[in-house]
Design goal:
Layout: E1 7-12, H1 16-26, E2 33-37, E3 51-54, H2 59-70, E4 75-79, H3 83-96, E5 100-101, H4 109-112, H5 115-124, E6 132-135, E7 151-155, E8 169-171, H6 174-189, E9 194-198, E10 207-214, E11 220-232, E12 238-243, H7 248-260, E13 265-274, E14 279-286, H8 294-298, H9 303-311, E15 329-331, H10 333-342, H11 347-354, E16 359-361, H12 370-394
Parallel strand pairs: 1-2, 1-4, 2-3, 4-5, 15-16
Antiparallel strand pairs: 6-9, 7-8, 7-9, 10-11, 10-13, 11-12, 12-15, 13-14
Helix pairs in contact: 2-3, 10-11, 10-12
């Protein structure tokens, strides 16, 4: 494979998902890798990055640094890792599109970030999803009585990146709604809108995902399937461990969503299994590389490298190569350790996730040890203290 030295891969963000993108690209002999982050996080300590810049979380700052990077090369392939980055890229899209590969459909990306839009598509196309109500006024909370408790409440768009709003909130009864009403009113005053869904029973071992790259020509060039083993800090948190076990119905529904919504780039529809009716119900669609995409690389499917090939107009075989005879557990040790400390009766999960026959630890790279050491020695204690403070605040 001939690598174009006049092209840079630009990874936005500095956390786990950003580092594993950089690692996967480097493993495919791509040396020109730039990284922009708003702080000095995990990727800052990597020896795999050839160009690092700290930016502000504004479109002007992002545009300024992209133009500076353009002085070093002819073409830039961009990899966002959170929804705010996508929104900033939409704002500057027309100013950089002539020399950048921007991995999403500009015409509908903002709609697709909206959970209401995702669920409306499911309703029209008979894809299972939980019954939901949206609201942007505390006076509308009364309507939640029409749903069956418990409920899960989320911002319609991922606003937890740039505000202090929660990512997800479990509501056990109407008294909980009254208890949270003043906090919700504060968020609503900031323009945040919410969607409340009937909570699908079952713990965080019932979450499955289809992750694919769909080209701008509308082809699914490859995909992989996976299942979360556990989340952090609770049942509605983020990835802690994952494995490559997943039924094919998830692939069928995931492909239908990406095709029907005309989504480009890397996307991950996530489903939760509902034991009551045996259906896999959409919880959300992530429209960028999520935290556990390295699981695909471990199965032989590097979607970030496929994006590079597509951007460079290099042919890539369509299909799926992720079938393996063995089970892989992909583990973020920080989250597993914190779960062991803070989640009751977690030892059985920790033992299964961390001590299975084939386990791969996130960030661990013997050729680039500093990010892993930073995550354990510096980041883990910070996360522990932050979690303690949150629990004290709750109490």
């Amino acid at each position: 494979m001939v690598i174009n030295n006049n092209t840079y891969c630009l990874v936005l963000g500095g956390y786990l998902n950003a580092y594993e993108i950089i690692r996967g690209l480097k493993e495919n002999s791509i040396s020109n890798i730039a990284n922009f982050d708003n702080s000095k996080d995990i990727t800052y300590f990597s020896n795999l990055v050839s160009y690092f810049r700290t930016i502000e979380l504004t479109s002007n700052s992002l545009l300024k640094e992209i133009n500076k990077l353009k002085d070093r090369c002819d073409y830039i392939i961009i990899y966002p890792t959170d929804d705010l980055q996508i929104e900033l890229l939409v704002e500057i899209y027309d100013k950089i599109a002539s020399f950048c590969y921007i991995p999403f459909n500009k015409e509908n990306i903002l709609n697709c970030l909206d959970k209401r839009f995702q669920y409306q598509f499911c309703e029209k196309n008979n894809i299972p999803y939980p019954k939901s109500i949206e609201f942007d006024d505390v006076q509308q909370l009364e309507s939640l009585k029409r749903l069956v408790f418990p409920l899960i409440m989320k911002p319609i768009k991922r606003d937890d990146v740039n505000t202090d709003v929660f990512r997800a909130l479990i509501i056990q009864n109407y008294q909980d709604i009254e208890e949270y009403s003043s906090e919700l009113e504060r968020f609503i005053s900031k323009g945040i809108k919410f969607i409340v869904s009937e909570y699908i029973p079952g713990d965080d071992t019932n979450i499955y995902a289809y992750t694919a790259f769909r080209s701008k020509n509308g082809e699914i060039l490859n995909y992989f399937l996976g299942k979360k083993l556990n989340q952090y800090p609770n049942l509605v948190g983020v990835f802690s461990s994952a494995t490559n076990i997943c039924p094919e119905i998830v692939a069928k529904q995931g492909k239908e969503l990406l095709t029907g919504l005309n989504i480009f780039g890397i996307a991950e529809p996530e489903f939760k299994y509902d034991v009551r009716d045996g259906k896999y119900k959409l919880t959300e669609i992530n429209l960028r590389s999520m935290m556990w995409h390295r699981l695909g690389v471990l199965q032989g499917v590097n979607l970030q490298y496929i994006q590079y090939l597509d951007a460079m107009n290099i042919s890539c075989e369509e299909g799926n190569d992720s079938c393996l005879d063995s089970t892989i557990n992909y583990v973020f040790l920080n989250h597993e350790i914190l779960n062991l400390i803070f989640r009751k009766s977690y030892w059985k999960y920790f033992k299964h996730n961390v001590f299975s026959k084939k386990v791969c630890f996130a960030l661990y790279n013997k050729n680039d040890l500093k990010p892993f050491l930073y995550s354990i020695v510096i980041l883990l204690p910070k996360m522990f203290i932050s979690r303690c403070l949150k629990l004290l605040h709750i109490k």
